[in-house]
């Protein structure tokens, strides 16, 4: 038999201008246009304007809010008005500020801890009735808080807790929204293969949560804690009912500035700005975690 020599295959060099080597062109419309920037600018101005208005009135005097020809440049009385708020004996500014920091911090830490644990159980543990229990937890979000005010007040009154911080901390230790938020996040953020690998290594369920679930949940937990802190800080309805004037939170204390016959809105809005400063500082220091939580929650994988 004669061997048949295969003819050599010619190597064809691809031209640099061929379609395979061309750089992909940007898709038309991938960059936001001027309409997007104009809309975002309008939203930004609408969000900043209440703060600027508070600064404008809070840095003036008692006649500034009624002056039709007022200047749109802040005045120089803000520090004097702030000193009047802090020095008002009816407000108890520093104890109220401390009460708001303690209650909001404890509520945020508790909600993050319990919501992360419950979210891990609903997302990664298989137990009988789990989906229906999650539906029940989410369904409690449809019940308004106002429906439970009277039973709660009767309960804490019988316990002798009215006027104490525990009356506003204990009912807010858990959050149905927090459980739902952490469940949805952990369901997508943690692969089941990592959990199986941890179990093969002999880790218990709680050990697996600490080594696998907790680090993965950090961005979403930071975002949940930030919004819970802000919500607890701004809460007025329930603390106004269950607390007294000797032991108020900051929103309840600032409401006493409007209890007189004549209301000086320059002092009232100066107090509002003082109560906003801690939240602004919190957003400045926790902004990186907030953006990270939003981006990781929006982009899967």
UniProtKB/TrEMBL annotation:
Highest taxon listed in the record's lineage: Bacteria
Gene3D superfamilies: MetI-like (1.10.3720.10)
InterPro entries in the record: MetI-like (IPR000515), MetI-like_sf (IPR035906)
A Pfam family matched in the record: BPD_transp_1
Membrane topology: Multi-pass membrane protein
SUPFAM superfamilies linked to this entry: MetI-like
Domain ABC transmembrane type-1, chain residue ranges per copy: 97-286
Membrane spanning residue stretches: 34-53, 101-123, 132-155, 161-181, 220-241, 261-286
Chief location: membrane
Keywords, in A-Z order: Cell membrane, Membrane, Transmembrane, Transmembrane helix, Transport
Subcellular localization, as worded in the UniProt entry: Cell membrane
Family: Belongs to the binding-protein-dependent transport system permease family.
Protein name: Carbohydrate ABC transporter permease
């Amino acid at each position: 038999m004669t061997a048949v020599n295969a003819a050599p295959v010619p190597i064809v060099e691809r031209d640099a201008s061929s379609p395979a080597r061309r750089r992909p062109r940007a898709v038309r419309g991938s960059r936001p246009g001027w309409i997007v920037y104009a809309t975002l600018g309008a939203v930004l101005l609408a969000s900043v304007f209440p703060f600027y208005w508070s600064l404008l009135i809070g840095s003036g005097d008692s006649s500034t809010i009624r002056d039709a020809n007022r200047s749109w440049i802040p005045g120089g009385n803000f520090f004097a008005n702030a000193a009047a708020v802090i020095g008002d004996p009816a407000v108890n500014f520093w104890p109220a500020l401390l009460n708001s920091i303690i209650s909001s911090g404890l509520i945020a830490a508790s909600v993050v801890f319990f919501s992360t644990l419950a979210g891990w159980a609903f997302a990664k543990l298989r137990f009988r009735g789990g989906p229906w229990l999650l539906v029940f937890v989410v369904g409690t979000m449809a019940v308004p808080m106002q429906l439970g005010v009277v039973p709660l007040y009767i309960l804490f009154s019988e316990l002798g807790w009215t006027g104490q911080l525990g009356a506003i901390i204990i009912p807010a230790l858990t959050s149905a929204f927090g459980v739902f938020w952490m469940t949805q996040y952990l369901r997508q953020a943690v692969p089941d293969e990592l959990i199986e690998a941890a179990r093969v290594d002999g880790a218990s369920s709680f050990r697996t949560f600490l080594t696998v679930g907790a680090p993965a949940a950090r961005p979403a937990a930071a975002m949940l804690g930030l919004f819970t802190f802000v919500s607890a800080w701004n809460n007025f309805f329930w603390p106004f009912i269950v607390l007294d004037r000797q032991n108020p939170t900051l929103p309840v204390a600032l409401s006493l500035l409007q209890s007189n016959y004549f209301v000086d809105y320059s002092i009232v809005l100066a107090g509002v700005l003082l109560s906003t400063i801690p939240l602004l500082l919190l957003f400045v220091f926790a902004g990186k975690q907030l953006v990270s939580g939003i981006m990781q929650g929006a982009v899967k994988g």
